[in-house]
Design brief:
- By secondary structure, the chain is an alpha+beta fold.
- The protein folds into two domains: 256 residues, Antithrombin, subunit I, domain 2 (Antithrombin, Chain I, domain 2, 2-Layer Sandwich); 110 residues, Alpha-1-antitrypsin, domain 1.
- Helix content is 26%, strand content 36%.
- It is built from ten helices and 16 strands.
- The strands form two sheets. Strands 2, 6, 7, 8, 9, 10, 14, 15 and 16 form a nine-stranded mixed beta sheet that branches. Strands 1, 3, 4, 5, 11, 12 and 13 form a seven-stranded mixed beta sheet that branches.
- A hairpin with a 4-residue loop joins strand 7 and strand 8.
- Helix 3 packs antiparallel against helix 4.
- The protein is globular and about 65 Å long.
- 50% of the residues are buried.
- The N terminus is likely disordered.
- This is Plasma serine protease inhibitor.
- Pfam families: Serpin (PF00079).
- GO terms for molecular function: serine-type endopeptidase inhibitor activity.
- It comes from Galemys pyrenaicus.
């Protein structure tokens, strides 16, 4: 077997960081009523939405769910280990120049510190860990940066006992994600030398819960010609609402208790691709700025989705290529001259019901040697739609597409 280094990530989403100061009207009023907003994550052009489009194109007709925040955090940590073109490609994909790299890491440090502050109304946990073989030398500068900038815990791990090491890592991830992400690592062997883990866990109750008595079985149109029966929640309340005529979609914001909101995006029938193509930081900013409180009769299906993505097949489409090839430069990680990333797997889960939402994500990256209207308006989400969970900073904690609840 080839010697490899396993790195586990989670999901990140700091693309719309500047949106907080653009909130107006009801959104501004609401933000004053909530807990102080967390530090805005570093801006990265349209990395989040480019990533979404790549994931959607790779799995047509399937549910998609991921944490942009975790993935971005993981890539930023990976940049700490890389040099030359490998680092430049990662930073460029994130929308950061080489001169801005230090600012990028500092921004994540502040974000992690503030996310870790206790909250009364919701649970939000984002963290990192390194599982390291004592027999392998990792540059102290890298370890120090991981501890100080990314608050990473370190654990000695005996990879000569692969099953024991796998259990140690999987148990850690399961604990930190409230048993939502289990068996993140499917296989290890005695040649593994390090696993880097990034995880995110979110749990919050709706500001106004849906009545379980109002949930009924209704048809969800998977395609124009095919429908399935799903439990559909019903809410009659004032929700944030915007009709985007440019993109031909309706956007409904359902607030959680605390500092977060779920955005449900329903394209006009036959216009899903138009909406997906138009997704950008500017688009999200416009939605949040133009939101008004509106009395709605709202129908949203209960969701339980688990999604797995092979990022080694997706990230090259966004310009991150060398790290997966013999051109990889991981000189800031170790003196070993022939290490590259062989696999990156991202797992995410979400459950949406009458009381609120629970979601979590984690990603594993494997390194190896190269030798190897007023009044009630009815809005029914009964066909494929998009879902974003944002805090009011506004970082995109999770993003997804529901093709079949």
């Amino acid at each position: 077997m080839q010697l490899c280094l396993l790195l586990c990530l989670a999901l990140l989403s700091p693309q719309v960081a500047a949106l907080r100061r653009h909130h107006s009207g009801a959104m501004k009023k609401r933000s004053k009523e909530l807990l102080p907003a967390t530090t805005e994550a570093p801006r990265e052009k349209d990395f989040v939405f480019d990533l979404y489009r790549a994931l959607a194109a790779s799995a047509p007709g399937h549910n998609i769910f991921f944490s942009p925040l975790s993935i971005s955090t993981s890539l930023a940590m990976l940049a700490l280990a890389t040099g030359s073109n490998s680092r430049a490609q990662i930073l460029q994909a994130l929308g950061v120049s080489l001169e801005e790299e230090e600012q990028l890491h500092t921004s994540f440090q502040k974000l992690l510190q503030e996310i870790r502050q206790p909250r009364d109304s919701l649970q939000l946990n984002l963290g990192n860990a390194l599982f390291i073989s004592p027999a392998v030398h990792i540059h102290e500068t890298f370890l120090n940066a991981m501890r100080t900038m990314y608050l990473a815990e370190t654990f000695p791990t005996d990879f000569k006992e692969p099953e024991v090491a796998k259990k140690q890592i999987n148990d850690f991830v399961a604990k930190e994600t409230n048993d939502n992400i289990v068996d993140l690592i499917e296989e290890l062997d005695s040649t593994n030398i390090m696993v880097m883990v990034n995880y995110i866990f979110f749990k919050a109750k709706w500001e106004s819960a849906f009545s379980r008595k109002s949930t009924t079985k209704q048809g969800f149109h998977v395609t124009p010609d095919k429908s399935v029966r799903v439990p559909m929640m019903k809410g009659e309340d004032r929700y944030y609402y915007f009709l985007d005529r440019n993109l031909s979609c309706q956007v409904v914001g359902v607030p959680y208790q605390g500092n977060a909101t779920a955005l449900f995006v329903l394209p006009v029938e036959g216009r899903m691709e138009q909406v997906e193509y138009g997704l950008s930081e500017k688009t999200l900013k416009r939605w949040l700025t133009m939101f008004i409180k509106r009395q709605l009769e709202l129908y949203i299906p209960k969701l339980s989705i688990e999604s797995t993505s092979q990022l080694v097949e997706i990230l090259p489409l966004l310009g991150i290529r060398d790290i997966f090839t013999s051109q990889a430069d991981l000189s800031r990680l170790s003196d070993h001259p022939n290490i590259q990333v062989s696999e990156m797997v991202h797992k995410a889960v979400v459950e949406v019901d009458e009381s609120g939402t629970e979601a979590a994500a984690a990603t594993a990256t494997i390194f190896m040697f190269r030798s190897a209207q007023m009044g009630f308006q009815r809005v029914v989400f009964n066909r494929p739609f998009l879902l974003f969970i944002v805090d009011n900073a506004t970082n995109i904690l999770f993003a997804g597409k529901v093709n079949r609840p």
